[in-house]
Each structure stands twice: as structure tokens, then as C-alpha cells.
Amino acid sequence: MKLVYFNDFRLGVLKGDAVVDVTSVVQKIPHTGPGDLMNNLIARFEEFRPALQKAADGGKGVPVSQVKLRPPLPKPVNVDCMAVNYMEDGTRKAPAPINAFHKSPGCIVGHGETMVLPDIAATIFEGEAELALVIGKRASNVPAAKAMEYIFGYVNFIDGSARGVLPEGNTFYQMKSRASFAPIGPYLVTADEIPNPQKLQVRLWVNGELKQNYNTDDMGHKIPRCIEWITSIHDLEPGDILATGTNHRGLSAFQDGDTVDLEVEGLGKLTIKVKDDLRRTWARETRLDRERKGLAGTTPQLTGKYAKA
């Protein structure tokens, strides 16, 4: 099942290219807003699934092109992101030590919305194409052998990054938790529709040009291990997001006016815009492009505030 929020946060089920409004089915779930409504629905999904399916099957849909899609998970308790979790197309000899960081849930934006680049002295702004999993029940000290039982579903996730902020070694919070730096969507896909999340193609385009193109089978630490490790540190709640990392070789600078599309196989296509009031510019090369030229680091800023002479 594909769950969506649309217009004024009506709950819908995607049926083909149409959205069927099923809001009436879940009104008795205690909630104060769309965020905890979705989280509480996830926690009680097996109870409500038959009624949702019946409403979707019998309801008249509205073309998805005629509605405004909203973030399908507006208010998770936790957004955790795995760090350096890919083998980079086999160029790493071994996985990096397992690591992650916490991203503010307030960073979330949805399909058709905008990532806004802040006025800070970052060396580059990038967006990482990622598969994110959504937790279905409270998870504490989950062993890897049982980890997949805790997954409710999956969603496209872009991990916005403002790299090069100072001071060095104390940057993850200000680099990752900027407003609008966690686009998700366009909908939430239940786990039964994704037979093997460890074998999904991930593609990201910038202005129609394919930049990232990799498979989730390249993860250094597989999904069960990620869940095991995160839940050994803190509990995860229904509706929480765990982004599984990215292959960095295709990363390139996000800049003003860009249209970015992310499509993880089976999860639909998430489209966002990029806005930078300073209109800073970078070359359009990827990290792999620079590597092939024998150049180190990310592409330098070319023009605008903070560009180095």
C-alpha cells in the first residue's frame, strides 16, 4: 500500500495514478495533528489496514497530478542517518566503522517543495540520494536477526548537507540539520511491496542530468545491522525514519534554480526545487568526475558570496 498526505493533509491511498481520500477511516485514532496521526496509524496499521483497503478499493480517486502532495511523515520522533555506509562501487577495501547522526525532524519537506540554501560560509551544498526505512513498532536493542520485523515501510530521502562549515570536527549538527534539508516522499510504501530492500536501484537527477546511480546492495553495513546498532543507542518509535546512507561518488553541488529528482526503485519519484538567494555557483561536476581528473575534494565555489578569490 502507498500512503500519501495531500492538500490540507488529507490521508490518501495511491491507486494507480489516482489518490483516494481515506481520511474518514482513521479519524478515531487519537491525534493532535497529521504528524502524530500518521505515527499512530503506523503503530496500529494491522488493525486499520482492512478498512483502508476497502475504502481505497471502493473510493473514487483524484488524479495525483491535481493534488498537492505533502510529506508522508510530517513529524517523526527521530530522523537518524547512517554515515559513510557504502562501499563506493567497490573502491573501499572495507566498510567504514559503523556511524550515524541525528537530523532534526524539523528539516522535513515534501514533494514539490524547496530546499533553501542558507547564508553561511559552506564550501558546497550537496543532497544525498538515500533509501530510508520507516519504523513500524517501538524498537529497543533489536537483534539483527529480527530487525526486518520492525520495518513498516520505505520512502525516498534526500540528505541535505552544507559541507565545510567551521569549526572542523564539530559540524554535523549545523551541516545536516538546516531547515528544509530532509526532503521525503512522494509517498510512503509499506514493506510488503518491497521484497528486497537490499537490491534497489537509486537514481538522482539534477536538471534532468543523471548524477547518482547506484544499488543498495553496495551498503557496507546492511539494513539489519543498522537497525541493531541504532537501537542499541536509543529507542526508535513508530514513524521514525532511518536513512541508510549514500554512494558519494555521484554527489554534485545543489544550487539556485535546480530541479532535483530522486527515485529509489519502487518508491516513486520525489521532486524538489533548490533556492539560494545568494545565487552562488559551482561547476556541475560530480566527485567521481573530479577523481577521474586527479583532483581532490569537492568542486570549489566559482561565484557569489564566500567564493575564494
How is this structure best described in words?
With 309 residues, this protein is of the alpha+beta class. The protein folds into two domains: 2-70, no CATH class; 79-303, Fumarylacetoacetate hydrolase, domain 2 (Alpha-Beta Complex), CATH 3.90.850. It has helices at residues 34-43, 45-58, 172-176, 223-231, 287-292; strands at residues 2-6, 10-15, 18-21, 62-63, 69-70, 79-82, 100-103, 108-109, 114-116, 124-135, 151-163, 182-190, 201-206, 209-215, 241-243, 259-264, 269-275, 281-282, 301-303. Strands 1, 2, 3, 4, 5, 6, 7, 8, 10, 11, 12 and 15 form a twelve-stranded mixed β-sheet that branches. Strands 9-17-16-13-14 form a five-stranded mixed β-sheet, with no helix packed on it.
- How many distinct folded domains? 2
Q: How many extended strands?
A: 19
CATH topology category name of the largest domain: Fumarylacetoacetate hydrolase, domain 2
Secondary-structure content class: alpha+beta
Q: For this structure, what is the CATH homologous superfamily of the largest domain? A: Fumarylacetoacetase-like, C-terminal domain
- Mean pLDDT comes to 97
Oligomeric state, counting identical vs distinct chains: single chain
Sheet with most strands = 12 strands, mixed
Runs in which pLDDT lies below 50 for 5 or more consecutive residues are: none
Order of helices and strands: EEEHHEEEEEEEEHEEEHEEEEHE
CATH architecture of the largest domain: Alpha-Beta Complex
Percent of sequence in beta strands: 25-35%
Tell me, briefly, the overall form.
globular
Would you state the CATH class of the largest domain? Answer: Alpha Beta
Total count of helical runs of at least 4 residues = 5
Radius of gyration: 19 Å
Helix content: 10-25%
> What's the N-to-C terminus distance?
53 Å
